[in-house]
Amino acid sequence: MRAQPNGSQLNFRTPSRTAAPAPDLKMAVHGPVVKIHPVVLASIADSYERRNEGASRVIGTLLGTVDKHSVEVTNCFSVPHNESEDEVAVDMEFAKNMYELHKKVSPTEVIIGWYATGFDITEHSVLIHEYYSREAVNPIHLTVDTALQSNKMNIRAYISAQMGVPGKTVGVMFTPLTVKYIYYDTERIGVGLLQRTRDAPNRAKGLTSDLCQVGGAATRVQDMLTTVLAYIEEVLSGKVQADNSVGRFLTDLVSKVPKISAEDFESMLNSNINDLLMVTYLANLTQAQIALNEKLVIL
């Protein structure tokens, strides 16, 4: 592999004897667990939809945190690049500037690897991974099948390891890692809204009011309580074998419920709802006054 600087770009040429990567599609047994946030997947899909005409895939830098047992991917940004049969050019100046800007907003996020859209790992992937090996220790490579070749978006993570005979042709083998999806509470709201668009005729869904969100949350809690009660009844009747871990979890859950009478709970709930409605009314009134003032200024 030969790296040739060209202004703000770094050009990699594929050597004639570079060993092709051989990814294993099975789940990893050893290695860190890769935890991915929804905002990362949304950003990758958006960069793929906005790719330049004629580009077959997009690549970018992954940001996040690393500990002894896991790698958490919390952010990413795309990096411009061009590919041909024997060469790939990556705009490294752009990547460095973007990372510096991200550090000003989130100083704890560091470069942990890179992503590429597509299902396969190519020889160009080996060359790009070589660069990110200089920016991070044991960087991960994330592939996102945005073309849905298997009728779903396959998401896989890899780490690389060199293979071959010392002093001879050396290749790179990509070993798969276990991928899990996690989210913050704010991300969960966005994911829930996206899921509701699946049933909408025009694939669009607006934000619901605070009162509707409270009603939806209450309905979900009621459904979960119904499921728990059905499970308990089946255990008591002998239809289902008791699970000690589930029992401990339910005991801990019940012990956290505050002891309060139904009358006091209803009074407290009504008071909070009234406060919420009052705040909503004042916010709408303020918004109307601001809009009226803007129109008076224009006149």
Features:
299 residues; alpha+beta; eight-stranded mixed sheet
Mean pLDDT, to the nearest integer, reads 81
Radius of gyration: 26 Å
Structural class: alpha+beta
H and E order: EEEHEEEEHEHEEEEHHHH
Q: Report the portion of residues in β strands.
A: 15-25%
Q: Major β-sheet, in short?
A: 8 strands, mixed
Q: Note the gap between the termini.
A: 69 Å
Shape: extended
Give start-end ranges of low-pLDDT stretches: 1-5, 15-30
Strand order of the largest sheet: 11-10-9-8-4-5-3-12
Query: With helices defined by DSSP (H or I, 4 residues minimum), what is the helix count?
Result: 7
How many runs of DSSP E, i.e. beta strands?
A: 12
Share in helix = 40-55%
Main location: cytoplasm
Family: Belongs to the eIF-3 subunit F family.
Pfam families: JAB, MitMem_reg
Keywords: Cytoplasm, Initiation factor, Protein biosynthesis
Care to describe what's here?
By secondary structure, the chain is an alpha+beta fold. Helices cover 43% and strands 25% of the residues. It contains seven helices and twelve strands. It has helices spanning 38-49, 92-105, 123-135, 185-196, 210-237, 244-255, 262-298, and strands at residues 2-6, 9-13, 33-36, 59-66, 70-79, 81-83, 87-91, 110-117, 140-144, 155-164, 170-177, 179-181. An eight-stranded mixed beta sheet has the order 11-10-9-8-4-5-3-12. Strands 1-2-7-6 form a four-stranded antiparallel beta sheet. A hairpin with a 3-residue loop joins strand 6 and strand 7. It is extended. It starts with a strand and ends with a helix. Belongs to the eIF-3 subunit F family.
